[in-house]
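Build the 3D complex.
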Amino acid sequence: MKVKLGIKNCLYPMPTTLVGALVKGKPNYLTIAHVGIMDLTSVSLGMNKGHYTNQGIKDHKTFSINLPSVKLVKETDYCGLNSGMTKDKADIFKTFYGALETAPMIEECAVNMECELIKTVDFPKHDIFVGRIAETYCDEAVLTDGNVDFDKVQPILFVMNDRSYWKIGEKIGKAWSIGKELTNKK
Amino acid sequence: MKVKLGIKNCLYPMPTTLVGALVKGKPNYLTIAHVGIMDLTSVSLGMNKGHYTNQGIKDHKTFSINLPSVKLVKETDYCGLNSGMTKDKADIFKTFYGALETAPMIEECAVNMECELIKTVDFPKHDIFVGRIAETYCDEAVLTDGNVDFDKVQPILFVMNDRSYWKIGEKIGKAWSIGKELTNKK
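Done.
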């Protein structure tokens, strides 16, 4: 039995990220799970215009996306609860920089992508920042056969509906493969 | 120890969806996990221009996003393996329509969002379709206290890096809450 929920975004779970930007000369990290993938090398951030971080991204035209693990869930939530306007969030993590030089990244996060801003889409209350990945960094420890292994990354998933964080579960199959069984039947 | 991976998208896992559209007068469903959230009511699809479905979305300016559960992983993968150009994918599922009338939705998926196309962002090989949710439908069975409960939905997560599907794991905390402990310390 289907029920109507009105205009309710249910496109979850999403990966919880820490977005890094240089704001007023200092690294700042903000928790963002309203993210997206445009194509294989481009990603988007849906960021409320009220965030302190937005101006830093506009100024330098760079940002980073860092994937915190479940071990960092408190630090991650802290970065969503507190604005860089009033709290210095640079001292929570060890910052490093890559080729772009103005996209601060978090050493403690196993995966880091530094991005160049290629487009901003204007929404009523949000800046949608679209970035092209310039370089991806990761801890050697989370690689399996040269690939990032998300079982080792242990990312934090986010669901807005009940404002909760989740772990990733078990792998259930190969994409572009597990459905072949049906193709053969049809 | 950080290693460089080059330009490697690691913004995963993403929710695996079945995108519904009316193409040449028939419902068609395509597997898409390169999705995104723009703001609370708007979502994006990153769809290779080669897909059969794109023209249907352009023609009717509507589409649906359906969340298959892990029980439908084979059917879901099948819809990614086979193009509507050569296979009739409408007969795999029971289709229903909502207020928009041209956005076919899948009865067997616990959560369905019908969307109006509000913007298309042109990428070299991809159409980025941005839609505003017009109505959300869900099975009564996946609600807990009136909220969509993702433990009941059992969505399929997708990781491109090793082309795999995953289950959601356990809930680990409340957002805008679990980090308060640190706020009080700092």
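The CA atoms of residues 66 and 112 of chain B lie 4 Å apart.
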